Hints:
By secondary structure, the protein is α/β, with parallel strands linked by helices.
Amino acid sequence: MGIQNKLDLILKGMNDSSDPSACQVFFRPSFGRGGGANFGELDFIILSKNCLYLGESKWDRSSERLRDGVLELRDNQKLRHRIFKFYVEQWAFGGYSSWLEFADKARLELESGVTKPLASENSRLATNLQTVLGIIKKHYTSMPAIRNVLLYLHDGKPVEQLPQRASEGFELVLIDYSEADTLDNFIRIEV
Length: 191
């Protein structure tokens, strides 16, 4: 089993009626670690019919704690979603003719005052971004709705032990993995 095999449950949890076989999934696309233009990796990206899902996942055994039924993500996780959304809006659907033009004219500045340099034209980060963003642009004819998702994977826990909400700006989808024969089989991705 993998995200591909649970895609119908994830879409259902998001009230998305897209045909799972028509969706595209990226598992852990890397956008570098550390400083500079790098901003980490999302756990997954799902391209459904009308929506682009940017996702994080947490296991019931992960270190994040529930507070009043809310599962909070770390600040760096929230930031990478905002940065990737910027790239989708500005690069994939912003009308730039080349990465060089984009890097010269765009400025990664988020509403909270966060600024980061853009990936330089010939960097590995720019190459990775252009590949993923190119597929996103090809999948959609216009700017899709972008939704942040937090998958919470649990082993059949009672509902009162499950999170009720995720960090602000994230939608929570609960996935029971207790029927998978092993966790490795659940998280393996076959793309």
